[in-house]
Predict the 3D structure of the following.
Amino acid sequence: MGGIIIKGYKFIVIITTFLIVLCGIVIFNFNSTPSTATTNEDKDSTDVVEVELNENSIKDQPTLGDEEVSVQIVEFGDFICPACQTWNETVFPMIEEDYIKSGKAKFSFVNVLYHDDSELASLAAEVVHKRDPSSYWKFHDNLFRHIKKEREIDQEGIEELIKKHTDIAIEDLNEDMKKPEFARELELDKKLIKEHGVSPTPSLMINGTLLENPFDYEEIEKAINGHGEGT
Ligand code: CA
């Protein structure tokens, strides 16, 4: 009889211990899961940069030409995209010569990030735009040229271009490239792309209208002149 009681007691102790351990595991998981999620949420809230579009979203992009001119040409381009590289070397110089230098239009560039290294190239370009704006277009053209020739871009290539074509110190570049303000610039570009329904690169927008073919100079001229002052 006593043996049965002891056995029963042992059984209760085992079951109770088992239940305590089980509860401990459940409580631990219950506590740890939300805390992990909170940590991720916290991390996300600092990683995901919230940006809002406003009337300066394009105005503050790298822009060539007289700001007061009403004809606004916007290229949505990707430094890694071969068609953008070709466009930059063929169509852009004509626009620059015929419309930007003569003060008939202004030209802005918005980054598109379709390729693996687009972010690296665009981030460096945003830093140049902010830190050494007078070197931006020289850097922009040489970045396109470099990627076309080398078929790739890496941090070393970026640093080489920065040294050659800007007054920015490499340590400043590297520090800036990690700052949220530059990540925010890329988020803003992504929003503009979405807002304007941009799909292929390059895409050309003249006074808010996307052109069908950015390589068709006649279409470009028609759009510019159609929107021009007194033309
Ligand atoms: Ca931008």
Notes: Residues 21-46 have pLDDT under 50 and may be disordered. Residues 211 and 219 are 7 Å apart (CA to CA).
